[in-house]
Amino acid sequence: MKLLNEYKNGNYNVKIYDDGTKVRETEEDEFIAEFPENIDIKISNRCDLGCAFCHENSTVDGDNSKFDQEFLWSLRPGTELAIGGGNVFENPQFEDFLLFCRNRGIIANITINQSHAYDIHKWGESESIYSKLYPLHDRGLLNGIGISYNGDSDGLIKFYNDCKKENINTNNFVIHVINGVHSYEDIMKLSNRGIKILILGYKDVRRGIEFRKSENDKIKLNQKSIYDNLHKIAESFKVVSFDNMAIEQLNVRRMFTTEKWEEFYMGDDGQHTMYIDLVEEEFSLNSCATNSRYKLLKTVDEMFKVVKGERNEETN
Q: Which fold would CATH assign to domain 3-315?
């Protein structure tokens, strides 16, 4: 593993490696952050897919963010950004923002739908794969790449193989699946191939509310299939990780001893993380906190204090 960055945050030290591994160390009883280690940041609400469960309500004529906000200059080297949308490629300033991040030592990770990650072109018996990710990788503008799984396992595996031919390190790819949208069977189509996956909780927000109304039985069935087979999933992939909503929905805590849980659990929302919607120029505890959002402030530290205060109110 290559060390990407090392820094002090509050009462602890952080090391981040190029395969996504993060190590926190402190001599105290808990980790108390002064600024967010990881920010989920939305830069576009434009997308042509129209997914029925999209909790961002992204549309074909959605707005894009600008990058002239003052707080961006307060981001520390080593801060990880989970950059998403919408479709991030719809933002005309996307590559310029990645360049800004690289020059300031900010670790840029992106999330993109599988349908936008690559195109497979066929000519008779032959085929080739094209991806906008290739030149970004070659310029050293990306670290982690999250790919939202659309169910086409064959196409995704072909893409992995093509990336290896292009000398792209797929070890930094993480396939995103949604608890309830995808089933155990959907997930296992990608099993035993050295793939990393991230299981996201189902978000009953915006279009996710309407999708729940029409597909509730299917969502519950899919969630049960994942819950019942979580140990098998864990054994079948190189890495399995979860967002906090999936941890709660799937009761992931049941799979760990107390010692192992304390070692692997990365913290509650707002403890080391926050959410920023650059399109609407708002920030919040997480992307689901639609009723508790605030206008952007001058520094990320100021915004993080607000987020931590809200988290403390929820936990007390």
A: TIM Barrel (3.20.20)
